[in-house]
């Protein structure tokens, strides 16, 4: 029986992918084989030695100690694209809120004390304060053209906007999916210089922390609207507040309220709502539950942020061994020797590496004796060995 610990509310449709005759799933499990998580911060948590996989039911993994897990030979999975539509819709809503001053206008009418004719007059007199502008012809800069950035670029083009994008790490697959109408910025500064709206869809890593800082905020056109539905640390809150106060920026709409931003009259700070739709929660949980199950049962790796993509069909009747090791020479040779010494014949094998890690699946023709597994475990550089 596999034991799965959940750290957040994971959608029931995702958990249904883990059959109850094989999986026990609960938030109170002491020796879990895997952990399913959304936004819970795992950096300060003690992660039990029994954990073989972590599944993030979402995109961002900055709440997970990925490097430590890599050193322990534990894959971290996520659900790329599963919540992209939900974030896209919220960002488009935010863009319209910013362009038409919707929250301020709504606040105005809610606070009116008048009634009857006086109410009508107050409405008509007050509306000029909230006059906005339309989107066609305006330029949107999209920083990060992954699943969410691309979806937003398409939606903005459909609304008649001009779209400029910047993504130094765009994949070939990602580039194929990007509309040819998206103009390519050579760097983030060139993008900022032209963007009346700028939206961020990058992971929070050292290179993206405060990518919009005090210096760069000045390079945005006057009145620009900043949208941050990626992570709190992507934008320097203080720099943005100063630019709002000076009138240089028109509005800041984000998913990350802080003491600094949430009371500012030109800020709309939502409670991390980007992926909070039933559809996104189901999609993310189902995708990541399938990935974790495939890893626990068959050793396959799909959509991991630290392990190489490794998928090998199972041969009927074969016995499978999964080995995680540091990416150093000769470990594969040693594993093959250990199998040969145990009189095992290798039927199929796949070996992949990513950064400092290497991962091998080996199918053999007979049950693997514990002595052969121990011999592999003792090889310097081997991080984990599982029989599946
Ligand atoms: N508000 C919310 O609820 C949600 C927030 N997010 C956040 O949005 C981020 C992006 O999500 P996805 O688009 O699904 O991820 P993704 O992995 O599909 O795309 C991220 C893109 O950012 C690019 N990138 C990385 N460093 C960059 C840099 N320095 N400059 C420009 N581009 C850079 C990558 O090459 C990649 O194409 C996540 O990492 C997460 O932090 C994601 C889902 C929901
Ligand atoms: O699970 C959530 O609600 C947060 C989603 C998110 O931030 C992500 O997928 O990166």
From TrEMBL:
Pfam families membership: 2-Hacid_dh, 2-Hacid_dh_C
CDD domains per the UniProt record, alphabetical: ACT_3PGDH, PGDH_like_3
Superkingdom of this protein's organism: Bacteria
GO MF entries: NAD binding; phosphoglycerate dehydrogenase activity
Name assigned to this protein: D-3-phosphoglycerate dehydrogenase
UniProt catalytic activity: (R)-2-hydroxyglutarate + NAD(+) = 2-oxoglutarate + NADH + H(+); (2R)-3-phosphoglycerate + NAD(+) = 3-phosphooxypyruvate + NADH + H(+)
SUPFAM superfamilies: ACT-like, Formate/glycerate dehydrogenase catalytic domain-like, NAD(P)-binding Rossmann-fold domains
UniProt keyword annotation of Endoplasmic reticulum present: no
Domain (ACT): residue spans on this chain: 320-388
Function: Catalyzes the reversible oxidation of 3-phospho-D-glycerate to 3-phosphonooxypyruvate, the first step of the phosphorylated L-serine biosynthesis pathway. Also catalyzes the reversible oxidation of 2-hydroxyglutarate to 2-oxoglutarate.
Pathway as given in its UniProt record: Amino-acid biosynthesis; L-serine biosynthesis; L-serine from 3-phospho-D-glycerate: step 1/3
Assigned keywords, A-Z: NAD, Oxidoreductase
The protein's Enzyme Commission number: 1.1.1.399, 1.1.1.95
Family: Belongs to the D-isomer specific 2-hydroxyacid dehydrogenase family.
């Amino acid at each position: 029986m596999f034991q799965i610990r959940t750290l957040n509310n994971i959608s029931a449709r995702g958990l249904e992918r883990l059959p109850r005759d094989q999986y026990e799933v609960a938030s109170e499990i002491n020796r879990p084989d895997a952990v399913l998580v959304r936004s819970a911060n795992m950096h300060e948590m003690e992660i039990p030695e029994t954990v073989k996989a972590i599944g993030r039911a979402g995109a961002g993994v900055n709440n997970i100690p990925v490097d430590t897990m890599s050193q322990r030979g534990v894959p971290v999975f996520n659900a790329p694209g599963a919540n992209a539509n939900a974030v896209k819709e919220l960002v488009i809503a935010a863009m319209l809120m910013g362009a038409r001053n919707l929250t301020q206008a709504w606040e105005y009418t809610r606070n009116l004390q008048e009634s009857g004719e006086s109410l009508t007059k107050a409405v008509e007199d007050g509306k000029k304060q909230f006059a906005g502008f339309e989107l066609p012809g305006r330029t949107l800069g999209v920083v990060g053209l992954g699943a969410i950035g691309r979806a937003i670029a398409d939606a903005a083009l459909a609304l008649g906007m001009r779209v400029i994008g910047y993504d130094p790490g765009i994949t070939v697959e990602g580039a194929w999916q990007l509309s040819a109408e998206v103009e390519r910025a050579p760097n983030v500064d060139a993008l900022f210089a032209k963007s009346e709206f700028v939206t961020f869809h990058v992971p929070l890593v050292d290179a993206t922390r405060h990518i919009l800082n005090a210096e760069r905020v000045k390079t945005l056109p006057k009145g620009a609207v900043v949208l941050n539905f990626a992570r709190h640390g992507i934008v320097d809150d203080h720099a943005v507040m100063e630019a709002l106060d000076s009138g240089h920026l028109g509005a800041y709409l984000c998913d990350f309220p802080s003491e600094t931003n949430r009371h500012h009259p030109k800020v709309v700070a939502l409670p991390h709502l980007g992926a909070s739709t039933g559809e996104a929660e189901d999609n993310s949980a189902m995708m990541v539950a399938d990935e974790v199950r495939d890893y626990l049962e068959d050793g396959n790796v799909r959509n991991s942020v630290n392990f190489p993509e490794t998928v090998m069909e199972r041969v009927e009747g074969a016995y499978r061994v999964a080995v995680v090791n540091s990416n150093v020479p000769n470990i594969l040779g040693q594993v093959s020797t250990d199998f040969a010494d145990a009189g095992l014949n290798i039927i199929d094998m796949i070996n992949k590496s990513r950064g400092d890690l290497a991962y091998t699946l080996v199918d053999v023709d007979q049950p693997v004796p514990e002595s052969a597994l121990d011999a592999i475990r003792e090889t310097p550089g081997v991080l984990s060995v599982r029989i599946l």
